[in-house]
Specification:
It is built from 16 helices and no strands. By secondary structure, the chain is mainly alpha-helical. The chain folds into two domains: 112 residues, no CATH class; 116 residues, Leucine-rich Repeat Variant (Alpha Horseshoe), CATH 1.25.10.90. The longest helix has 17 residues.
Length: 230
């Protein structure tokens, strides 16, 4: 079955899209990118999930190409059973090697089981693995900045320290979103320079680009930029 799924990807190849992806995800070897567009991968994932013919494919890790990782993420995103989904997600995360797969892994089961999901986030944050940490922050951003918000989650993300660009960028994205949704709670982190300088300034930059933050708040945040060390 894994071989059949792999062979099904090649007829969906788009060379222009492949070249675009290679530029967008520079840490992935271009020869491992088939170039299947996201809608086609999502459609295939839905077909496999409905048919139940995905077990052997999920079990075959690591995958050989980027598109297989994408398909894997989309299949997990279709799953409704929390226990099965969280088990497969934990098994898959160590093999996630790029921001696109990380960010497009968004299981439906997690939306309905937020409190159960919370138990795994500290473990992922402490993993030391770039995309597992990024995924944990992404889950806090996606599920815990609205009705289930707790200021403790801001502190957990603030304490993340990494030299990895894709982790620092996610911290900035998280705090920019927090400033749009939970301004009063998130602002003290910026006023007190709690984030490292690069992430602090990138957070403010993202706020400047946001349509959800009023102009008056943008003007104030802009004054809070710091001089980042070279």
């Amino acid at each position: 079955m894994p071989t059949e799924i792999r062979e099904a990807l090649y007829p969906l190849r788009d060379e222009k899209y492949r070249a675009f992806q290679a530029r967008l995800i520079p840490n992935i070897a271009p020869e491992t990118i088939i170039g299947v567009r996201t809608p086609a991968l999502r459609s295939l994932a839905k077909q496999l999930y409905r048919a139940g013919d995905y077990g052997p494919f999920l079990a075959e890790l690591p995958h050989r190409c980027f598109d297989e990782n994408q398909l894997h993420a989309f299949i997990l995103s279709e799953m409704h059973d929390f226990e099965a989904c969280i088990k497969e997600t934990c098994r898959f995360l160590p093999f996630v090697d790029n921001w696109a797969t990380c960010d497009q892994l968004s299981p439906k089961a997690f939306k309905r089981n937020r409190q159960r999901l919370l138990a795994y986030i500290p473990v992922w944050l402490a993993s030391g693995q770039t995309y597992t940490v990024r995924f944990a922050i992404g889950m806090l951003m996606a599920h815990f900045l609205d009705g289930d918000f707790d200021p403790a989650y801001l502190e957990a993300v603030c304490r993340v320290r990494s030299d990895e660009y894709y982790v620092k960028m996610m911290v900035a994205w998280y705090f920019a979103t927090a400033l749009a949704k939970q301004y009063a709670s998130a602002l003290p982190y910026i006023e007190a320079n709690r984030l490292e300088p690069w992430t602090h300034n990138r957070t403010i930059q993202k706020c400047m680009e946001s349509y959800r933050i009023p102009e008056a708040r943008k003007a104030y945040l802009k004054r809070l930029k710091v001089r980042a060390p070279r």
